[in-house]
Amino acid sequence: MPKPCSICHHPNVAKINAAIINGTSYRDISGRYGTSKSALERHRPHIAKALAKAQKAVAKRDQAIAEKQETATAIQEAVQAGTLLERLFQVHRDTREIFKEARGAKDHTTALRAIARMEKQLELEARLLGELKDTTPPAPTIDLSQLSDEDLGHLEIVIERATIRGRSEVPPAAADQPIALEEAKVT
Ligand SMILES: [Zn+2]
User: Fold this and answer.
1) Any idea what the Cα angle at residue 182 is, between residues 181 and 185, rounded to 5°?
2) CA 60 to ligand 1 centroid distance, Å
3) Domain count, the chain
4) Is residue 68 part of a domain?
5) Number of helices and strands (H, E) in the chain?
6) CA of 6 to the centre of ligand 1 (A)
7) Is position 82 within any domain?
8) CB 3.0-4.6 Å disulfide test: which of 2, 164, 173, 176 passes with 184?
9) Measured distance CA(55)–CA(59) in Å, rounded
């Protein structure tokens, strides 16, 4: 059985390897690290293996770091997206609540304001979400088609009544929407 290499197990093996690669004489290395010239000669062929091993370890470590960062970024993005989505839904719920209450109280001005606000908020949140996901397409234009059919039905009635009464102005945002704003049918 061959004797194990004393340099490979030397506490300063990395420094010795570097010195050999740098062309430092065996005599100088021996003087510095208390090894023998013959031991260094025997060890020389082991350097390539040691370097490959070190390289592999570094690559593995770098990969681990990259994966960790990737995961952290993904989690952070998911959290941010989740927060935004939660806010989006909350605003949607709140505004819907206001809309319903206003409609119940026949407060059409407030109902229309709630709709306009919902639209604005949806637009903002959609833009934020779009930026977060780093998508190239421009911020999606949210229109009232985002509302459910039921809401749209209510909305049409509300707008129609408001128009007939002439009590409140239809907000420009709502007026631009592709909603069939029927002519006031005053009979
Ligand atoms: Zn060796």
Assistant:
1) 145
2) 23
3) 1
4) no
5) 7, 0
6) 6
7) no
8) 164
9) 6
Whole domain around residue 162: which residue ranges?
87-175
Q: How far is the CA of 174 from the centre of ligand 1 (A)?
A: 80
Whole-number Å distance, alpha carbon 56 to ligand 1 midpoint, is 18
Pair 115, 96: CB distance under 8 Å = no
pLDDT digits (tens, 9 = 90+) for 61-104: 888 888 888 888 887 887 777 776 777 777 778 888 888 888 88
Å from CA of 12 to ligand 1 middle? 12
Asked whether residue 150 is assigned to any structural domain, the reply reads yes
Domain assignment present for residue 65? The answer is no
| Tokens 């004393």 sit on residue | 6
Q: Residue 43's CB: how many other CB atoms inside 10 A?
A: 20
Give me the amino acid identity at 48: A
CA neighbor of 35 nearest in space, from 47, 24, 27? 27
Distance (Å) from CA 63 to ligand 1 centroid: 28
CA-only gyration radius of the chain, Å: 36
Cα-to-centroid distance, 181 and ligand 1 (Å): 87
Evaluate if residue 175 carries a pLDDT over 50.
Answer: no
Q: Per the confidence metrics, is the pTM higher than 0.70?
A: no
Q: What is the whole-number distance in angstroms between the Cα of residue 96 and the centre of ligand 1?
A: 76
